[in-house]
Input
Amino acid sequence: MIKVILLLVYFAVMVGIGLYCRKNATDVNGFVLGGRSVGPWLTAFAYGTSYFSAVVFVGYAGQFGWRFGIAATWAGIGNAIIGSLLAWVILGRRTRIMTQHLDSATMPQFFGQRYQSQALKIVSSVIIFIFLIPYTASLYNGLSRLFGMAFDIDYSVCIILMAVLTAVYVIAGGYMATAINDFIQGVIMLVGISTIIVAVLNSQGGFLAALDGLGQISDPTVSSTPGIFNSFFGPDPVSLMFVVILTSLGTWGLPQMVQKFYAIKDEAAIQKGTIISTLFALVVAGGCYFLGGFGRLFSDQIDIAANGYDSVIPTMLQNLSPMLIALVVILVLSASMSTLSSLVIASSSTLTIDFLKGHFVKDMDDKKQLLYIRVLIVVFIAISAIIALIQYKSSVTFIAQLMGISWGALAGSFLAPFMYSLYWKKTTKASCWVCFLFGSILMIVDMLMPSVLPAIMRSPINCGAIAMLAGLVIVPVVSWITPKPEQKLVDDAFACYEKPTTVTQKTALGK
Output
């Protein structure tokens, strides 16, 4: 009864906020970007909650905690420093300035305006739509075992309920509703992960006792070194490095993450948001991977061969009190719904503004764009829910691995072209094309024909990380050997950075 009541209250608040924010979603700018007037707390929490979902809490924390032990915490630290702090410092301000200057509300629209290329805009929007769907479907996977542990209801009901509720508040209130809900969901995640870590460690005699117990566990199939699971870098530092790169650097090229910078209100919001977002990631991501690192203490209750890595975290939590289990369910539901809402807005707005408008639907005014975005939100959520239901009913497991494919394809395609476009005037349109094709095709090959790739690249994690790093080399190399961009086009794009602005003396000294 406690669990049901808490869930009903949670759902009522989410829908209520969506209805309340309808006044901010009357045009495309308000619906997609919140009128570019979102403050630091809402932006930072929207960034963080879109970053971390049930895939991270249940899937990645369990899998990498089991494989690397306490060293998996490095992934969380990387998420905070690289995925949050450096992302805000390097991309935040420049993204906000240039996207407003180019009047772009989506990443494909940015590429189209920056290089005056409709083809770039269309292809990048197709890449986003294709590779966001499997990522969205994978969000549901982390909920299946938790709901099976906490409630005696079919998982299909959970999928449908989550899909319907997300659709209601996103369609009603747009970006502002998701931002406010993300803030509430973020608070739940912060409180939840901190409480759960304390509860789980106390069940093992406290932190020092749990750490000592972890050091006494050995697995000859992993390493013959004693105490390897409570060591600094764990049994496989190279694989751990690829995990850190994929889950941290990947945010720099994900459209649903970068789009958060479009909506920032002002300079003060960027400065505060950087700190808030970093601390949020340190607690949530660091806490998730830290918790997963103690998974082997429960190895007598876990059968990885039969139930997979997704069973690690639910097994660790199954003996908690009913109140804590309810908190866990709401925590994971919050993480998933916040990420889902961010994905559907990014995908539906991209498909409407960059793919349909002007190409397939002529004379699409603001009101009609808003209608198409809302319809596509329903379509996008429905497709992802159907894929998740098929996966659940048929026991197909590969969809859970598609987050690595999705992140690798999107960030491998967009990270380098987007970042260089903000900073380097010599970036060419051809370099964007090469990077788009390289990132997406490489990850498709890794998914369908991994045997043709070198052994180190057959893992979606490793392949995705390599795709991102390769893009950072591909863009400058191709730009150097291809014709320079038109000077006037470049000057017009970068003129926004030279625009003078007046600030107070506490920000900059006067003459």
Observations:
- The mean pLDDT is 86.
